[in-house]
Write a structure and sequence with these properties.
By secondary structure, the chain is mainly alpha-helical. It has 8 helices and 2 strands; from the N terminus they run H-H-H-H-H-H-H-H-E-E. It folds into 3 domains: 41 residues, no CATH class; 27 residues; 57 residues, no CATH class. Helix 4 crosses helix 5.
Length: 160
């Protein structure tokens, strides 16, 4: 297929590219404004972003939308898990009940031995909800390795 056949305009330039251009600008004077001025004049940074790039954010948002649709329609484990997280009424009704066994394990921590046991328990589930941990270089003793703890968090998927 030729470029001409794949394009949306008589001169072979796709309509999406044409809409991003500002043909009122002389490309010899300001090529960026000529090629991107149309996009710049219409685009705005979404409230939940600090920047917005057509080449990166638009495709990323498209992928997120496709994943969201796939998870909503999936009849397997992924769809079941996604729908359970998005069922706000069920989550509100359950409250903290699903966390009770995990919180009880944390309450058992009284010393280094019980902390180690609790870390092993959480590690079996690869759970970083309460806190994460790793072994890395000791900042005070470069020749040693140390246990590093970091805060975790519990979240639900974004609702689109």
């Amino acid at each position: 297929m030729s470029l001409e056949a794949a394009s949306d305009s008589a001169d072979g330039i796709p309509a999406e590219m044409l809409s991003a251009m500002d043909k009122s600008v002389d490309p010899c004077e300001d090529f960026y404004s000529y090629s991107c001025g149309g996009w710049d004049s219409k685009a705005s940074i979404p409230d939940d972003h600090t920047s917005w790039l057509k080449a990166w954010d638009v495709p990323a948002e498209d992928v997120q939308d496709q994943l969201h649709t796939l998870m909503e329609t999936d009849q397997g484990v992924v769809g079941t898990y996604f729908k359970s997280c998005m069922d706000e009424a069920a989550v509100a009704q359950l409250g903290t009940k699903p966390l009770t066994p995990w919180l009880a394990k944390i309450e058992e921590v009284k010393d280094m031995r019980s902390l180690t046991a609790m870390l092993a328990f959480l590690g079996e589930y690869d759970n970083g909800a309460f806190f994460g941990w790793s072994v890395a270089g000791d900042s005070h003793h470069p020749d040693r390795r140390a246990l590093h703890l970091s805060p975790g968090g519990t979240t639900l998927p974004d609702r689109k």
